[in-house]
From TrEMBL:
The gene is accA. Pathway: Lipid metabolism; malonyl-CoA biosynthesis; malonyl-CoA from acetyl-CoA: step 1/1. It comes from Sporosarcina contaminans. Pfam families: ACCA. Its main location: cytoplasm. It comes from the Bacteria. It catalyses: N(6)-carboxybiotinyl-L-lysyl-[protein] + acetyl-CoA = N(6)-biotinyl-L-lysyl-[protein] + malonyl-CoA. Component of the acetyl coenzyme A carboxylase (ACC) complex. First, biotin carboxylase catalyzes the carboxylation of biotin on its carrier protein (BCCP) and then the CO(2) group is transferred by the carboxyltransferase to acetyl-CoA to form malonyl-CoA. This is Acetyl-coenzyme A carboxylase carboxyl transferase subunit alpha. GO terms for molecular function: acetyl-CoA carboxylase activity. It is found in: Cytoplasm. InterPro entries: Acetyl_CoA_COase_a_su, ClpP/crotonase-like_dom_sf, COA_CT_C.
Length: 317
């Protein structure tokens, strides 16, 4: 059963009312079709009103929805002949990052992304989508391989952040992330990153130094979670709603500031409502981005990436 988010409660209650009337009609000789149609019309209008006016904290909840499509869900919908590759050739394999080879509309590509689970067992296996250093080193190995064979790199970002545990720090978590930033900046092949859920801190940025950065409409991209920011600023994690509003972590805010290139509209209610339809929307954006980037030379791609990040923010003397 799909999780009910707090702002969705009026919609859920109205749906339940419609289901009750439909069940009553089917089991009794009473025609309530007119009333049911009126309620369905009201439901449709209510969905448009609520989903069309979501606040930042509402979007955070949708980005964290347990049934929200993951990297592997989109890979299955978007790419043909996908072959997953494992390991960093140094320590081991990290299930919190998946990657491999595939084809997009016949074009060979390398695809890499954070991978979280949809239930407790899978989340434990995937470390809740929080990579260890070997995950980032696996990602970098695949990126360098893509550069060697001239394949575009497509990254899916969906993590609360890099894993902060002792073992991760001992194996060089900060160095692994920093290495990815440096190497991605200089890759001579197109890089496209898409934020599909939460994009948290350096753990997200390690797959985010791209020529084009796109975001699903209800995703978030930030240096810290709203709860973390509230704890630091006000010593009270319960003020996370206010923090989410102040941090400007949603797609519309980030587009306005020039941090991302394009917002990918989501199906009504969120991507988890219709994975195939959501993948179709991503496909169109990927086609456009690849078409513009694949005509550039290696040096032009590096310069394009450099200028993109130089334009972010304001400089004062």
């Amino acid at each position: 059963m799909s999780k009910t988010l707090s702002f969705e409660e009026p919609i859920v209650k109205l749906r339940e009312k419609i289901e009750e009337l439909e069940e009553f009609t089917s089991t009794n000789e009473v025609d309530l079709s007119d009333e049911i149609e009126k309620l369905k019309t009201r439901l449709s209008n209510l969905e448009i009103e609520i989903y069309g006016n979501m606040e930042p904290w509402d979007r955070v909840q949708v980005a964290r929805h347990p049934q929200r499509p993951t990297t592997l869900d989109y890979i299955a919908e978007l790419f043909e002949d996908f072959i997953e590759l494992h390991g960093d050739r140094n320590f081991g394999d990290d299930a919190a990052i998946v990657g491999g080879l595939g084809r997009f509309d016949g074009m060979p590509i390398t695809v890499i992304g954070h991978q979280r689970g949809k239930d407790t067992k899978e989340n434990v296996k995937r470390n809740f989508g929080m990579p260890h250093p070997e995950g980032y080193r696996k990602a970098l190995r695949l990126m360098k391989q893509a550069e060697k064979f001239g394949r575009p790199v497509i990254c899916f970002i969906d993590t609360k952040g890099a894993y902060p545990g002792k073992a991760a720090e001992e194996r060089g978590q900060s160095e692994a992330i920093a290495r990815n930033l440096v190497e991605m900046a200089g890759l001579t092949v197109p890089i496209i990153s898409i934020v599909i859920g939460e994009g948290g801190s350096g753990g997200a940025l390690a797959l985010g130094v791209a020529n084009r950065i796109h975001m699903l409409e209800h995703s978030t991209y930030s240096v810290i979670s709203p709860e973390g920011a509230a704890s630091i600023l006000w010593k009270d994690a319960s003020l996370s709603k206010q923090a989410a509003e102040a941090m400007k972590i949603t797609a519309p805010h980030l587009k306005e500031m020039g941090i991302i290139d394009e917002i990918i509209p989501e199906v009504l209610g969120g991507a988890h409502r219709d994975v195939q339809k959501q993948a179709d929307a991503i496909r169109e954006v990927l086609k456009t981005s690849l078409h513009s980037l694949c005509s550039m030379s290696g040096s032009e791609l590096i310069e394009d990436r450099y200028e993109k990040f130089r334009r972010i923010g304001e400089f004062t003397e």
